[in-house]
Each structure stands twice: as C-alpha cells, then as structure tokens.
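Colleagues,

For the teaching module next term, I've prepared a clean inverse folding example: a structure given as tokens, and then the sequence designed for it. I'd like students to try predicting residues themselves before seeing the answer, so please don't circulate the second half yet.
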C-alpha cells in the first residue's frame, strides 16, 4: 500500500483532508504522508471560518495552549514583518520577540530563530537572508540556478543529543523556482501532530513562501509537506469531539463530513 498523498487547493482544505485520511488509518497514524497545497496563501471566507473553528477547539481543549496563529508564528512572524519590513525585522525578532517566547528544555517553537540565527563556525548565521539574497541575484540575471535553495532546521550537533520528545519537528525545507519563476517549497517533518499543529504549520509555511517570493520578485507556487510520521491527535479532546470538529469544518468547506471512527 502506498503512503497517503493529499492534494487540495488551500491550507484549510488540505488540513481537513489530511486529517480525515490519516484518522482512518490504524491507530490514527501514518508514515510518509504527503500533503500538497496548490495555493498556500489563499484565504477564502470558508477557509477563514475553518481557522476560527480550529482555534476555538484548541482554545477549549489544548493543554499546551496552541492556537493556529501560535503555531504559524513559530515559522514566520507575520506581524513583526509587516510592522518593520526586511531586513529590519530580523533584528527586531531576535531582540524583542524571541526573548519573550516561552523557553524550555524541550526547545519547541524555535523554527524562525533557527532560520535567522543558525549556529555556524563563526557565530549565528542568517540562513534565510542568505538564501533570499542568493535567489534575488539569480532571478535578477535570469540565472538557470533554480534548485539550490535549501534551508535546514535540524541541527545534528544539538538535536541528536537532546530529549527524544519536544524537539524540532520541522527538519528541512527545500525551495525551488520553476521555469515560470514560481516559488515552490517542500518541507520535511520528522513527526507531525495534525490537530494541534498541521493547519498552523501550513499557514506559517505559506507566509514564509510569500515573504521569500516578495523579496525575490517571484510568484508563490505550490507547497508540499512530507510528514514522515503523522498522527491525528485529539489535542486533549475526545475522539467524538474531534470528529464533530471535522464535520463542522467539512460543512463550511462543502466537503463530505463523514469521518471514520
């Protein structure tokens, strides 16, 4: 049996479809699940309503205090970028935003910090800015270099020795430019909780793509996420409450509301 592959037009539809498909698997988990989103920055009224439903559900049940925007902001701090612009928002994030984040030995939620302050031989390196500047140069001269934009999150020196739980789940991102100058992104997750994290992850990755595309002068293309392990968690709720959430969201999106037990 081939691993599941979900293809949907936007983040909300992709989250719901992926959650439904994996929920039907034994123990509500799967491996090497691929989620494709054709337009990760689309925001229809129905998709916005789904975000509200998921936020309300997480706000009521999640002991971790996760909301969709909380998760999305760990990947890309949209409000900080809109307020300060690039490159100023990098410094603002490190000096004002990041110190306020809840820190723990689990190290969760440091994705953007790792993109812009990855440990290098001579100190912290802004890998995101380096990648954007390289892409801008190649786009400006219409270079054929379209497949050289990689962004690691996993730090083998640090993460391999850390706790087996609570570490970074997003491991690696590979950006591509197609022949029509559309930005494509593939993201690899070592572990993925679909109720608490997936929708926020997709939205955050879409916002990151929008930033990179805008800075490089290209268009946003599709997003593909590989969940090497995926689990439809309940976020502290019952299975019946989770299925009711799926049904409400399916109704908003005009999708089949049937969820396997």
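(Answer key — instructors only)
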């Amino acid at each position: 049996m081939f691993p599941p592959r979900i293809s949907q037009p936007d983040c909300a539809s992709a989250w719901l479809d992926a959650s439904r498909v994996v929920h039907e698997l034994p123990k509500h988990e799967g491996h090497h699940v691929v989620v494709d989103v054709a337009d990760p920055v689309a925001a229809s009224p129905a998709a916005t309503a789904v975000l509200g439903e998921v936020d309300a559900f997480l706000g009521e049940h999640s002991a971790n205090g996760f909301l969709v925007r909380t998760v999305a902001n760990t990947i890309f701090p949209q409000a900080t970028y809109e307020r300060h612009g690039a490159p100023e928002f990098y410094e603002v994030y490190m000096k004002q935003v990041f110190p306020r984040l809840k820190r723990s030995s689990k190290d969760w939620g440091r994705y953007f910090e790792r993109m812009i302050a990855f440990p290098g031989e001579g100190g912290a390196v802004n890998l995101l800015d380096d990648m954007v500047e390289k892409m801008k140069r190649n786009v400006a001269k219409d270079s054929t270099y379209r497949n050289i934009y990689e962004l690691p999150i996993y730090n083998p020196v640090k993460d391999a020795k850390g706790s087996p739980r609570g570490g970074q789940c997003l491991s690696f991102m590979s950006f591509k430019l197609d022949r029509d100058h559309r930005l494509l992104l593939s993201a690899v997750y070592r572990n993925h909780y679909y109720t608490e994290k997936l929708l926020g992850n997709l939205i955050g990755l879409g916002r990151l793509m929008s930033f990179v595309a805008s800075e490089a002068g290209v268009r946003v293309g599709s997003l593909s996420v590989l969940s090497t392990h995926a689990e439809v968690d309940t976020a502290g709720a019952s299975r019946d409450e989770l299925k009711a959430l799926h049904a409400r969201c399916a109704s908003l999106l005009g999708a089949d509301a049937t969820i396997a037990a």
